[in-house]
Structures are given as C-alpha cells and as structure tokens.
Amino acid sequence: MKKIILSFFLIVGFAVISFSQDIIVKTDGSTIKCEILEVDISTIKYKRNDNPGGPAYFIEKTEIAEIIYENGSRDVFNMEIPGNINNKSMDVSENRKGYIAITLGPAFPMGDFANHDIMDPKAGLANTGFQFNLVNFGYRFSKNIGIAGLWNGTAHTVEFIDEATWSHGYFLGGLLITFPSKKVDFDIRLLGGYMNATLKIPTINAEAKGTAFGFDIGGVVRAHLSQKTSFVLSLDYAGGKPTLSSNIGMDFTQSIENITLAVGIAFRLK
C-alpha cells in the first residue's frame, strides 16, 4: 500500500512539474514555454520546457513583451506588439486603470426646474440647455472599484423672459463602479459635492446667486480607440436645491435637476 501511495504522489508531482511553466511573450507575438532562471538588467536566462535537461538560453529584454510566471504574476517590458495576437496579456484594459475626458451635450431640465407655469413659485422656467464637462475623471484601484470626479457647467435660456439665463455648475467626487473589458468599459458613478447656480435677467438688471450640495448619478460607456484614447458616451441625472440671493432683494430656493447626454474623448491613464 505504501508503495502505491508513494507512486501516486510521484506521478502527481511529475504531472504538476510538467504542466508548471513560465511563459515568455515576445514582441513579435510568439511565446516560449520555459523555466525562468535569472532576470538580469538586459537579459533573461531560461531553460526550455521541452528540453529541461538541455542548456540554458539567454534572450534580450528588448525582444520581450512580457513574462507570465507560473504563479500568474507578470513582468511587462514592451507592450508595442501586433494587434492580432490572440493572447490575454494583450488586453490593454489591464494596463489602463483610469481616464480623463472632455465631453459636452444637451441638458434636459426635469421636475420643477422644467416647469413653465409662470404662476407657480416653484417653476424654474428652464428650457433645454447645454452642458460642458471640462473634467470627467475616473480611476480604479481594483478590478471594479475606484473614484470618479466631475467638473462642469450648464446653461439654459428661460421661458417667457427675454435674454434671461440659468447657469449652474458642479464640482463633484465619489464612487466609481467599473466593468472593464478589452474594447469597451462600462462605468457607474455616484457623486456628491459643491454646486453653484446663477439666474440673470438683463432686462431688469437682476442677478441671483446661490450654492448647495449637488449630486450626480450617471453611467458612462468608453469605447477604446487605442491604448491611449477612448470615445466616451455618458448619461447623467444631476441636481441640487440652492437658495439664491438677488441684487434686488428677492431670495428664493430653486430645485434644479437635469438629465444630460454627453459625448467626447477620453485620454486613458495607466
């Protein structure tokens, strides 16, 4: 019985050793299954798996895209390799954890802000406006979780009042939930922070300003154009309820809510 057990473990051990391997991925896309013996400043020393009793070989680091070790860890050297290589290590999303984007698009007022009943004191009388996101930022610390930030400005004309405009902006930060893939990343962001709003009515030389806590709940789709750029499409629901003080002695609180649809370009961060 002892001999049978010993033989079993020897066979299993031999099988594990046989299937355990390091993999050198070369810049031309070819691979070498081997045992890494030594990593020097400019060269890698290894033994081939198909000839474990043979000589040791050397390869220049400039010829290597990356090394995938037996335990799953990796050393990346040169990732500029052909785009048609079918290898998981070529997934550019693994090496790009963040982005910073510039986006713009229409802003559709919601709720009281979109109310055009001039007799209703809660009505914002806002028409469809335009939003410009100067900073649209995200960075993941793990596969699916990270932080996000948003700095933007939005402007609307006002129904029934000539030359009157609403303008408001956000400076927000919060949670990023992301689902990365090779070609497209999907993001959900939950943000909170500073909001400011201004109502200007030039015909009577009136201006009202206020601040409040602002929020944003949004979704982002990022289609990767290259290792460094992505096309961005976002849909957000944002708002706040600032109390505004005017230069003509009228103070009031206005609920401001928008749904925005924006497109732009993102620069991908490592």
What would you say this structure looks like, in words?
8% of the residues lie in helices and 57% in strands. With 270 residues, the protein is mainly β. It has two domains: 2-90, no CATH class; 95-269, Porin, CATH 2.40.160. The chain has an eight-stranded antiparallel β-barrel with strand order 7-8-9-10-11-12-13-16. Strands 4-3-2-1-5-6 form a six-stranded antiparallel beta sheet, with no helix packed on it. Strand 12 (206-224) and strand 13 (229-240) form a beta hairpin. It is rod-shaped, with a radius of gyration of 29 Å. The two termini are 56 Å apart. Residues 1-19 and 84-94 have low confidence and may be disordered.
Which topology of the largest domain does CATH recognise?
Porin
Multimeric status of the protein = single chain
- Unreliable runs: 1-19, 84-94
What is the top-level CATH class of the largest domain? Mainly Beta
What's the pLDDT, averaged over the residues?
87
What proportion of the residues is helical, as a percent range?
under 10%
